[in-house]
Amino acid sequence: MKTINLSAQEVREAVSMREAIDAVRRGFVDLAGGEFEMPTRTALRNGQFLVMSAHHRPTESAMIKTLSLNFDRVPAIAGTVTWSTLDKVDSLIADAGAVTTLRTGAAVGVATDLLAAPDADRLTLIGAGGQAPDQVRAVHTVRPLRHLTIVDTNTERAGALADTLQAELDGTEIRTATDPAAAVSDAHIVCCATPATSPLFPESALPAQVHVNAIGAFRPTMRELPDELLANSTVIIDELDAILEESGEILHALEAGAITKDDLTELGPALTAAPTDHGKRTVFKTVGVAMQDWAIARLLADKFLS
Q: What is the bridge-based pairing of β-strands 36-37 and 49-56?
């Protein structure tokens, strides 16, 4: 029996964003096909401690993630992802922070590839925290970027992220800003990655055609998007039960009567449906589900336990 322990750096070196996107895409299709046993995650201390688990029936494999979340420390996410199977006694333990940011970015990559205009190349990223780099990497993987605007009230943090990404995004014009409403006015794609408790911008600030990803709000008390945007867009979500348990913006829009449950489409079925015109404004709202962590853990297990 052996146990492989992987640091954040080792996770990063082992899994590319393209691999992560492809794996998470397959996972969403399997989730839609009923191949997962996946309870809604356990949230303790108002979401500061999270426990997530998933069992993939066809491979008889399972993943359990435990983490603590504190936006006042660096890194904000700390914990472990554990992988095991029924046919082997070997197991794998990986850094939860790296897995979480990678899989969240990958889900955004899957949704952006499905929903954003084929020629979209202008991204506005709101929030320059720990999740931010993989949001950009994922979008850039499926829609090569010519322009990137990083919005954060902390100008030093935004500038540091711009410097980091400039080395990776050769040929992309990168600028920083502090006003979200002004920054989204010419965007083709918007990524929201903040712990906001009220909408980051009004619907009127957005151009007529845009795709918006919202990943920051993962508790009912958190909210990044206005009701009007959800009411006037095609809304794709990761998983209905998780969204109805945790998504502040969806719960607020439902309670306000701006949308109904029938307006929400899960990503897995959307990926397997016949090609369709989703409309000029699209939204992907995710709170994160355990299947995504399982997908990354499986990639790691294939590389280190095979």
A: antiparallel
Helix (H) or strand (E) holding 180: helix 180-183
Structure tokens at 208: 């007529």
Domain spans of the chain, in order of start: 3-100+291-304, 117-288
- Sorting pLDDT into bands at 50, 70 and 90, what band is 306? confident
When pLDDT is averaged across residues 248-260 and rounded to a whole number, the result is 98
Give backbone dihedrals phi and psi of 192, rounded to 5 degrees, phi first.
-105, 120
Question: Residue 160: which H helix or E strand, with range?
Answer: helix 155-166
Residue 6: exposed, middle, or buried by beta-carbon count in 10 A (0-12, 13-18, 19+)?
buried
Rounded distance between C-alpha atoms, residue 92 and residue 107, angstroms: 22
What CATH number was assigned to the domain covering residues 3-100+291-304?
3.30.1780.10
pLDDT confidence of residue 276: 72
pLDDT band at 275 (very low <50, low <70, confident <90, very high): confident
CATH superfamily of 117-288: NAD(P)-binding Rossmann-like Domain (3.40.50.720)
- Residue 177 vs residues 12, 125, 183, 276: alpha-carbon distances, Å: 28, 10, 7, 35
